[in-house]
Design brief:
Blueprint lengths: L8 E16 L2 E9 L3 E6 L5 E6 L10 E11 L2 E10 L5 H8 L3 E4 L5 H8 L6 E8 L2 E10 L9 E8 L13 E8 L7 E5 L8 E3 L3 H14 L4 E4 L6 H11 L13 E6 L2 E6 L3 E4 H10 L10 H9 L11 H7 L1 H33 L3 H5 L3 H15 L2 E2 L23 E11 L2 H8 L13 E3 L5 E3 L5 H22 L5 H25 L8 H24 L3 E6 L2 E5 L5 H14 L6 E14 L6 E9 L5 E4 L10 H17 L2 H16 L10 E4 L12 H11 L9 E6 L6 H4 E3 L8 H17 L6 H9 L2 H5 L1
Parallel strand pairs: 5-18, 10-14, 12-13, 14-17
Antiparallel strand pairs: 1-2, 1-8, 2-3, 4-6, 4-7, 5-6, 8-9, 10-11, 11-12, 15-16, 19-23, 19-24, 20-21, 22-23, 24-25, 25-26, 27-28, 28-29
Helix pairs in contact: 6-8, 7-8, 8-13, 10-13, 11-12, 11-14, 12-13, 13-14, 16-17, 16-20, 17-20
The protein binds a DNA duplex through α10, α13, α14 and β25.
Length: 789
DNA sequence: GCGAGCAGCGTACCT
DNA sequence: ACAGGTACGCTGCTCGCG
């Protein structure tokens, strides 16, 4: 039976992937990106843009851009009201029409993208399988929808990476050719790894092309032939794709990678620019990895492909000097080929790790994979809330116009007494803020109500009888996550099902943890200072109450930070601490729960620099299995030289595991000696720091800015956001004068590294083990070097 | 004109 | 372009002294 060109009504099934809209005869038509056996498009012309007005029109009001209006009953800012639903002629006219109408009252939901509006109104989510009726390419009716358990393996995927000639260091797209295109289809099957290039190389994965032009054309052809549905790259939106298109232009050919033989469009989305390809999903892994970094799910300091792969897998991938790629091509092209191939492999590994969570987020939130890939956590929460608001017949609130810039009072952090301790137990509240929100019905529209209420320590009242939208949505997320966790226990690790549910669980965790921040984010629709400050006030209340009760039970509370509690076991048994835990949990409201985090035979808290007081957020704990948990120390910071970090780490390990001050001092002495004799390689002396502003916008000349300025003078391109890796050299007075990028540094200032890096990093810890104040002072005043000679 | 002392800029970290 | 709490190095200013 032929499906083509049939104008008869037909019933079909296919999976929804994304939606956007096109304009036909001045009308906006929704375009659904679907996948049956193949990806295709379906059109729905029966949907119009609209927004709401809470106010009254003058009788004679007329506007050609307004094609309809009706009174509807809605819940607006928590109150039931009659408002006007105003239907616009075309989405692009909505802003203008709203301008014309806003004088008559408060307008709402005028800034929701049209396709997003469609998905929300129809309650459609990506990866739903739709059973629908169509006439040709027109969708006439959705008969049913079911959530589909799609994952990466259901798609034809291609991961790619290009290498370019760069005799000037940075490749120039008008003249420097693309040398190779490495790619891999459908996961990491070795036989699917290939490399397109114009040199004939004795490697089994080479696909030879006559020249650069035919290689580019071959790539486009490949996407078509293999019917690629998801195209992955690393930083491909900013580099690979634009470069390929520029080369195609220069070579007078096309770069039409879309299913409809279009090219791609660069979209600016907040932080990131992403390249949108029609009819295929292009997903740039770089912004995805950045997202995981920003929310703290991936704790790394640099987001280069090399570093992400190394940190994620613990393996090192083959690397080459970027500046010398052109030389490799000329002299050792097979090395370059292997490198390119290694980049593809690394990208592919990163995809395996992160894309399942992106799928889970997409299914849960209802944004397409492409949208999720450039999303922020606030957008995720907001989309969830808007969808639920729509179901509850609520109008989504507008973003706040003005706000109080003074921050609200946040978490409680207890000042620790510096010292080395034995036998500590750490408890923490499981999802403290999310559980407070749900257990106390914290919502911008349940606040300050009459009647029964949860009263926050600040006196804000959250009513008990009407559940707010925020706790309702968050509660569902928490419930779903609990179900996932339960199911995971019944599954064997490494199974496909486990992976999928684990990814879902991770996605739900990301979402749950984003609600508190969202409520205080100044551009959020549900912004509420009073909710935010109530949450932290409850947080402070519960953690300090718990500490108080621990003290009453005879435990010494060493340290508290936000939701975690460090207690000293003293002469008590572990069981006693655990029964204390139970007693706390009996009294906690709702889904709040204190958890046993761990037992630590030994731990160290240090004092603040140049002060007797303890330092907060800086400690090291030795676990029962011998692992050491380190927080806040210089050694976890990227703006300290590796030599200092490594030394500090060794000192910590010696102190915690062996308790030997002498051994630690000996080690420090050796390092100082190596520094003094110039044996330490430059790489261990690099200090990394980001220029968060434009180089010209600083009031103060910091070392990293000094290094950057000198590099700029030598023709390097350095802009806002660049990570500067510098070495402190001998030349100059101030540190900023001495600082040079690693690549330009000729020598290093051993005095600086000894007195400003090694000594401060280790003295803190050593001083907790018997170094007296006198020792400390004499270290500071005397020639530091003498002490070590 | 110069060094000591200090405030505040700036970054990265913790939960 | 999700929050607030915190440490701390460095710069560049003020101040006191000469």
């Amino acid at each position: 039976m032929s499906e083509e060109k049939s104008n008869k009504k037909a019933i079909r099934k296919a999976v929804l992937l994304d939606a956007d809209y096109i304009t036909r005869k001045d009308r906006a038509v929704i375009r659904l990106i679907m996948k049956g056996k193949k990806m295709f498009q379906l059109y729905d012309g029966n949907f119009s843009p609209y927004f709401y007005l809470d106010g009254e029109f003058p009788d004679n009001f007329n506007d050609a851009r307004m094609v309809g209006k009706e009174k509807v009953k809605k819940i607006v800012l928590g109150k039931e009201k009659e408002v006007w639903k105003i239907v616009a002629r075309h989405p692009r006219e909505v802003p203008e029409l709203r301008e014309a109408i806003k004088q008559f009252g408060e307008t709402y939901e005028y800034d929701i993208p049209f396709a997003k509006r469609y998905l929300i109104d129809k309650d459609l989510f990506p990866f739903m399988e739709l059973k629908y009726e169509r006439e040709g390419k027109k969708l006439t009716r959705i008969i049913s929808k079911t959530k589909k358990d799609s994952s990466l393996k259901d798609f034809n995927t291609l991961v790619f990476d290009i290498e370019t000639y760069n005799p000037q260091g940075i490749p120039r797209e008008k003249q420097d050719p693309i040398l190779m295109i490495g790619y891999e289809e459908n996961g990491s099957l070795p036989q699917k790894k290939k490399l397109m290039t114009s040199k004939k190389l004795p490697l089994d994965f080479i696909e030879h092309y006559e020249d650069e032009k035919s290689m580019l054309e071959g790539f486009t052809q490949k996407l078509k032939e293999k019917d690629i549905e998801i195209l992955f790259g690393y930083n491909s939106s900013a580099f690979d794709l634009p470069y390929m298109r520029a080369r195609a232009d220069a070579l007078k050919t096309n770069f039409l990678i879309g299913r409809d033989s279009s090219s791609f469009k660069i979209q600016n989305r907040g932080f990131y620019t992403v390249a949108k390809v029609n009819g295929r999903m292009h997903l740039d892994v770089y912004p995805i990895v950045r997202f995981f970094g920003i929310i703290g799910a991936l704790k790394i300091t640099s987001f280069t492909l090399e570093n992400v792969y190394a940190e994620m897998s613990g393996k090192r991938k083959m690397n080459v000097e970027k500046m010398k790629i052109w030389e490799l091509w000329d002299q050792k092209p097979e090395v370059l080929a292997k490198y390119c191939s290694a980049d593809v492999m690394a990208t592919s590994e990163i995809i395996k790790r992160f894309i399942p969570t992106i799928f889970a987020l997409s299914k849960t939130v209802g944004l397409s994979l492409f949208d999720i890939s450039s999303s922020t956590s606030s957008l995720l929460v907001e989309t969830l809330l808007m969808r639920e608001a729509s179901k509850e017949n609520m109008v989504s609130p507008n973003r706040p116009k003005g706000y109080d810039p003074t921050p609200i009072k946040g978490a409680y952090v207890k000042l620790p007494e510096p010292g080395v301790y034995e036998n500590m137990i750490v408890f923490d509240f499981r999802g403290l803020y999310p559980s407070i929100i749900c257990s106390h019905n914290v919502d911008p529209f349940t606040i300050d109500c009459e009647g029964e209420a949860f009263v926050s320590p600040l006196g804000h009242r959250f009513c008990k009888d009407k559940m707010g939208l925020v706790p309702k949505v968050l509660g569902k997320i928490l419930e779903l996550r609990a179900e996932c966790k339960k199911k995971l226990k019944t599954l064997s690790r490494n199974s496909e099902e486990y992976e999928k549910i684990n990814a879902m669980q991770q996605a739900l965790k990301i979402l749950a943890n984003s609600f508190y921040g969202y409520l205080l984010y100044v551009n959020s629709r549900w912004y509420s200072r009073r909710c935010g400050e109530s949450i932290t006030a409850w947080g402070r209340y519960y953690i300090s109450e718990t500490a108080k009760k621990a003290e009453e039970r005879g435990f010494k509370v060493l340290y508290i930070d936000t939701d975690s509690l460090f207690i000293l076991l003293g002469d008590k048994k572990k069981e006693e601490a655990l029964s204390f835990l139970d007693s706390i949990n009996c009294e906690l409201p709702g889904n709040m729960e204190l958890e046993f985090e761990g037992f630590y035979p030994r731990g160290v808290f240090v004092s603040k620099k140049a002060e007797e007081k303890g330092a907060k957020k800086k400690y090291a704990l030795l676990g029962e299995d011998g692992t050491i948990k380190i927080r806040g120390f210089e050694l976890v910071r990227r703006d300290w030289a590796r030599i200092a970090k490594d030394t500090q780490k060794s000192v910590l390990e010696i102190i915690l595991k062996e308790g030997s001050k002498e051994k630690a001092v000996k080690l420090v002495k050796d390092v100082v000696e190596r520094l003094r004799t110039g044996e330490v390689p430059m790489e261990e002396l690099v200090i990394y720091s980001t220029l968060r502003k434009k180089p010209g916008n600083y009031d103060i000349l910091s070392p990293e800015l000094g290094a950057a300025q000198k590099a700029i003078a030598r023709g390097k391109k350095i802009e806002k956001g660049t990570l500067i890796g510098y070495v402190v050299t001998k030349k100059g007075k101030s540190i900023s004068e001495k600082a040079e990028l690693l690549e330009f540094a000729q020598d290093y200032d051993s005095n600086y590294y000894i007195n400003h890096q090694i000594i401060p990093a280790v003295m803190k810890i050593l001083s907790e083990l018997g170094y007296s104040e006198e020792d400390l002072k004499s270290w500071g005043k005397q020639q530091t070097l003498d002490l070590f000679s």
